[in-house]
């Protein structure tokens, strides 16, 4: 996507708008303290035209206005944001955030999954980080010279702070850990709608009651809408569209939730609707025309009109259009999948396990094909002593099938689809998946775990880490 100075100005305007809403509803972030915002900039590559290419987030971080505000408003120095190794970058950003913990008013990242990843990384590295804070010396594992230089400017031995952090991290349960580690934090920032919904429950566990703020809906194609009620529940978040960001049009989409066997009609010939003409409760696919060359580009997101702010339409994110599981004529959307997983994972709760990550895959290597769910589980209290009960796991498979749509159930009954399977993978498997995607060029800041696996390599990564396989025992109808 070409980026011009005009587009860069729009980014700044957009950021200013959603931040002013946080200031209005929660705290004056520019005055109250610092933001521990986890940011990762991918390295630029030179295109044959001589123009540089990078991710949107990286170009925002490179902007002169943003860089100038870093030392005063953020805990992460730019050297850590631009560090080419994502793990070294995260280690250092956590270190800087912990050193300045008394000043931190916000913990966040672009997507909620990154905040969660940081907390998990902290679970594995807090002893090392405390040691660094105690001695005032950066771990030898950090080899990036720019990060080392940045650290040497601020680090000095602080055994008291290190002991405090050690005591907090050493406790049995990490329930509410974010609030304990950053006592002045007022909110957690990170998009938690769409594919990120699955992370909200776990983030709420770590957050200690801090509000989870999903401020914006944006894509590389266009910055679209902001959440004018930042304190609302993640499930109620709507984005008010800003008509000055791009020219927005909408392709009506038949509501997938209606439980008929019929396939959705091909809507190539359906008329596009302008922003001013969208209707409440109707679902649309977003189409963008922007000032840098995209003409009527289908972003691939399905949105539902949830209301209006004055005359500006507000949308709830429904799903990525392309994400569906299908082994025959049925179509299972991201929303269907999320609903079924939510129902099934409730069975794990009394056992002391939580579902931390999931993805899916339509296995058609045998006939009939079947749905495979990869689940990564974690004990609520990290004792590593609990065994998974196979009976419950089988029940989870069945509960998922029961919660899927009517078409799925009919197909299951007629043996057009075989029994749903849950493959439990060992801890860290989804991190390995992410590392693989990052190694293939995905920006860490913009990484979204796929709801459905399509690539052979990604499948191999998960399959090689399976520790248990469970199948639904009977048809749901
Ligand atoms: P990217 O292509 O990396 O710029 O990612 C843009 C995509 O991320 C969008 O098209 C959406 O699918 C997803 N996304 C961005 N913001 C949100 C949001 N607030 N809620 C749900 N999904 C989002």
Automatic annotation (TrEMBL):
Pfam families: GH3, GH3_C, GH3_M. Residues 336-457 form the GH3 C-terminal domain. InterPro entries: GH3 (IPR004993), GH3_C (IPR055378), GH3_M (IPR055377). Keywords: Ligase. GO terms for cellular component: cytoplasm. GO terms for molecular function: acid-amino acid ligase activity. Residues 239-320 form the GH3 middle domain. The keyword Ligase applies. It comes from the Eukaryota. Belongs to the IAA-amido conjugating enzyme family. This is Indole-3-acetic acid-amido synthetase GH3.17-like.
